[in-house]
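Per your request, structure below.
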């Protein structure tokens, strides 16, 4: 299960720019609206989602391909 922990760490690192900007946007929503910067923040959020999605899909593929190996190797060794 070490690869599962590693995957969780990688996904967390990849999501951190998105989560950070989203948290800032919520915390400063009144200021963003006050200065009329909604479009800029929306574009930035959409860019980050588009940019980091392939990395997330790659790490999800890694998890799905590595998990069966973690299960099958000990089972095949035990027989």
């Amino acid at each position: 299960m070490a690869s599962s922990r590693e995957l969780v760490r990688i996904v967390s690192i990849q999501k951190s720019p998105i989560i950070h900007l989203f948290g800032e946007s919520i915390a400063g929503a009144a200021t963003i609206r006050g200065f009329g910067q909604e479009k800029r923040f929306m574009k930035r959020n959409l860019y980050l989602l588009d940019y980091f999605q392939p990395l997330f899909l790659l790490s999800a593929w890694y998890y799905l391909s590595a998990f069966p190996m973690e299960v099958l190797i000990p089972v095949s060794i035990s027989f």
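Residues 12 and 19 are 9 Å apart (CA to CA).

Regards,
D.
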